[in-house]
Write a structure and sequence with these properties.
Oligomer: heterodimer
Distance between the termini of chain B: 46 Å
CATH topology of the largest domain in chain B: FAD/NAD(P)-binding domain
Number of helices of chain B: 11
Number of strands of chain A: 22
CATH superfamily of the largest domain in chain A: D-Amino Acid Oxidase, subunit A, domain 2
Helix content of chain B: 25-40%
Radius of gyration of chain A: 23 Å
Bound molecules: flavin-adenine dinucleotide
Number of strands of chain B: 22
CATH architecture of the largest domain in chain A: 2-Layer Sandwich
Number of domains of chain A: 3
CATH class of the largest domain in chain A: Alpha Beta
CATH class of the largest domain in chain B: Alpha Beta
Number of domains of chain B: 2
Strand content of chain A: 15-25%
Largest sheet of chain B: 8 strands, mixed
Strand content of chain B: 15-25%
Shape of chain A: globular
Largest sheet of chain A: 9 strands, mixed
Shape of chain B: globular
Amino acid sequence: MMQTQVLIIGGGCTGTGLARDLALRGIPCILVEKRDINAGASGGNHGLLHSGARYVVCDPHSSRECRAEAELLKSLAPHCIEEAGGLFVAVAGDDENYIADFESACPREGVRSEPLEVREALEREPRLTPRLTAAYAVDDAAVDPFRLSLDNIGQAVELGAVYLNSHEVVAIQTKSRHLQSIQVRNVQSGRTMSIQAEMVVNATGAWAGHIAAMAGAPLEMHYSKGTLLVTHYRLTNRIINRLRPPSDGDILVPGGTVSIMGTTSVQLPDLERVRPTREEAEQMVSQGAAMLPCLQSTRFTRAYAGVRPLLKQSEVADGRAASRGFALIDHALDGLDNFLTVTGGKLTTYRLMAEKTADLAAEKLGIKAECRTRTEPLPESSLGEWTEGGKSSKAWLSQADAGDHLLCECEMVPKSHVVQVLAELETQQAEVPDLNQLRRRTRVGKGGCQGAFCSLRVTGLRYDQGKLAGDQGHRQIKEFLRARWSGQQPILWDGQLAQAELTEAMHCGLFDLEMQSD
Amino acid sequence: MRFGSAFNETLMKTSIYDDRKYTLQTDLTIIGSGIAGLSAALFAVQEGLDILLLGDAGASNFASGLLDVLAAFPGKKIDHCSDPWQGMAVLPEHFPKHPYNRLQSDEIYQAVVQVMRALATADLGYNGFEKENVQVITGLGTCKQTYRVPESMWPGVKAFQDKSPCLLVDFHGLKDFSGPWLRSTLAREWPAIRTERVDFPETRGHSELFAVRLAQSLESERVRQKLAAAVAPLIRDEQFLAFPALLGLYSSGAIRAELEERLGVSIFEIPTMPPSVPGLRFLETMGGILNRYSCFRRESGKRVSHIQREETGQFALTLGEGEFSSRVLSRQVMLATGRFLGGGLQADPEQIREVVFDLPVVQPSPDQDWHQEDFFDPGGHQANRAGLEVDSVFRPLDTKGDVVYENLYAVGSILAHSDWMRMKCGAGVAIASAFKAVQSICTASNQEDRFSL
Ligand SMILES: Cc1cc2nc3c(=O)[nH]c(=O)nc-3n(C[C@H](O)[C@H](O)[C@H](O)COP(=O)(O)OP(=O)(O)OC[C@H]3O[C@@H](n4cnc5c(N)ncnc54)[C@H](O)[C@@H]3O)c2cc1C
Ligand SMILES: Cc1cc2nc3c(=O)[nH]c(=O)nc-3n(C[C@H](O)[C@H](O)[C@H](O)COP(=O)(O)OP(=O)(O)OC[C@H]3O[C@@H](n4cnc5c(N)ncnc54)[C@H](O)[C@@H]3O)c2cc1C
């Protein structure tokens, strides 16, 4: 049994941001995450730090929140952000009225947007279609969500917070208006334990309804899946947005050495199977090609998907939502005094969501402590150091140590980085860290070969270190390749299909891994 | 499965024959020099055909050097077959369209043996059992079933069978191989394996070593001597000594024999991740054998950029582009261009195409998924069964089921209905189909000769 003041459920950007916020206020907390940092929507988005322009017409409130938060983050967490700038572009046939609305709404909401001549836009981004009809420059930026969450949890842990990876909340006991104890299961060992907390915060994004239901509080969510595609090379310097009401295949965001194409919106009945599909991938390529014709012949290395945490509208309408952008719910209204839910919102506004939640939690606990995340810079943690595309390779090319060598040749990830990240993970958890955890913290498995070679080299290293035994290696590789495959399967044509053939030739054709037990 | 778009007949316009236009005339042009193309070339030169072999790196450049014939049936669950010939007997029932069904089992056996014999004349021996697959331990500690293994791996097969004490030596900086991985994975089954890691001779200052480079450096006697000196003191009572597969590239037989003599133990190699040295030995050795024949010509590095059919029915091939292109006139053409990795097939989001002739490709229908959701699905993936449909002597068929050209053949992994990765039949299908196609060419040209007499 563990005890703490605040228990946070969910290790996305909201939960990790909240852990840091509370820790900076001196409020002890435990964060439990059923899978891994950013295993939910926080790892399944574009990484676009919104300037506000995208919502300026249809959701001015969110637009304002985004603008203010983006400005703050640019100054407080610059190492997680690339101030790439963005363009909004319309192509022949796009709705003229929307363009006019956009032009008038930007100044009204204080969103900077500078009209460009088509020629100028093409000079800045030569891959854009010459069939542009309008273009505006905006202050959009790219943010590395993994780095952000790892740095947030990194500082929180340094300040005394406890982070439990692979710990799933499976049941909640309530007693006279109180969440009395929270049952948590270690999904790797299968062991369960209970946690008691004065306050419980449900920060599980799209899963918020599940947790609320365990406590007996009604909360209905929409499940809207979005799929994204990763290109082999970076296509544009800036973020490219289609200047039309948000729809499929209308955003391209640079992420270090690659570009991320998004997205779609598919309603799911539940959260059982969140996978990108081939139809979505094809649909997005054909839609996106209207702005960027090169997408038709671009090599995509993988697809991934996330579920937007959207509250069913009725919940918002009955007035419990603290804001239209995100929802902060005090379940006292449902007869539970120490239970809050924070969901909805954006990656861009995660800090604000954490601040408001911590304010409410502190107030209810009777603690007087000011928010410090609004003014204090986010320190760089060593865990988040190697998530950025191109960074490992730069470090490798400029100062490789004698005795070091590359385990991932596509993304140039040296052994020393892998050893460092795994060692740090080991200090945080009792279980042996696996390849999927390593992938979320480095570029391992993210390059052209999608893990075919580096999975073997890293596993070899782990046996050399004595960290793996028996057939654990086979199991880890199978699990890892299965996870990578869910992003491969939708985009297998052209070069990436040949790559997949090589992967299968190695792992099944030669090594017979399909015949080894899982 | 369905056919992709009908191929374009107009591409094949005939033209007037004029032999001054050609730099070379030949009986048979083989496009592709993977296992299939090389085997076809071998069978053809042994029959005295004038041949031209084209193509460079393909899937075979990543191959392990192990020679699979048949070891598994994918499906709802995977069925193993330890005797490939028994498997062959039930193949028509389970996989009626599999390329093997166009041959008798003993023809397939003959074909494999013919390749093995040729390799043995060039110091690249292969070994195995007649009616049973061999179990070979891979660098991942898995036990792979295959039909023939290079001689250099054979003592390992015996050692594993008897679970004999064995020392496995690997090298600092060789990131593609981990002895401890193999040892730990097999600890229960083969407890008598011990591992040691040493510095590879003359690699100080190199933190990153590659198997192919090390194999090349072992061609030097000085390096071999140093390696033996480094390993000798580590051997205790073991009768077997194992290395990752890198004991020489060109004269591996002699190199291994010399090391065995120096160290007084039986030495064997363990297959590594690609690029694998034994796979490259296969390609190199086959190339060397073919070079002994005066009727053999090779143009590597040039792609076929254009193909036309002459009035006579012969094929006019343009190799390369522009100023440096050359033209070849060929009585027969054999496609051995491989799949997606080799370059014989190409896919866009809508469909899979054959690259050189744009032949119709049998492929999953629009409502069928190309790939399963689980990478390791026991049934394998539909896309891996796409390919060319052929007649009984491996001539591609059109959508109506008719032979496209009576003098065009297709062999190897480009053929439909054979998922070599899951059935473990890669080299076997390549060799068997090449064998049958060459036989047919010879029969056809004998008949022609009789007519012209
Ligand atoms: C396709 C797509 C694109 C997007 N693009 C952008 C963008 O470009 N910019 C932007 O600002 N926003 C974007 N968003 C929105 C943004 O990603 C989300 O709003 C944000 O990531 C939500 O974070 P979160 O921490 O609240 O939820 P999540 O990141 O979903 O975190 C919830 C966590 O809870 C865990 N959990 C669930 N159940 C349990 C349990 N029982 N026990 C323990 N843990 C549990 C999950 O594993 C998960 O890690 C996008 C969203 C999607 C889907
Ligand atoms: C990682 C890996 C491991 C393997 N392990 C084994 C194993 O253990 N056992 C086994 O039996 N098999 C194994 N194989 C499989 C074996 O290599 C295949 O069965 C084999 O690749 C059959 O190939 P192929 O000759 O049909 O085509 P490929 O080897 O792909 O050769 C295709 C050839 O066609 C040429 N080409 C293509 N297009 C053109 C063009 N337009 N013009 C000119 N030339 C062209 C290419 O350059 C190449 O030379 C392995 C393969 C891989 C990739």
